[in-house]
Amino acid sequence: MFTSKQRANLRSLASTLKPIGQVGKEGVTENLIAGLSDALDAHELIKVTLLPAAGEDGENLAANLADLLGADVVAVIGRKAIFYRRSLREEIEHIRF
Question: Does domain 4-84 fall into CATH 3.30.110.60?
Fold first, then answer.
């Protein structure tokens, strides 16, 4: 879990990010999980669009997706979800709190 200051910092960093993927009518697939997991390893912070066709509300869908990714949900704003997972890669610049 994050403190309110950490969450605010991550939200501000994510404000300029473009969504890297979307969850649609097919829901959460293995390919989607693999792609998002790779993106988290490379960037630590990602934004994903949660389309209404996915069938669930944004909060539940983001929580389920975070569990599958081993990530934390930073925020769900409308139909966009922000996820954070610390990368094990040494060559990237890690987000500092």
Answer: yes
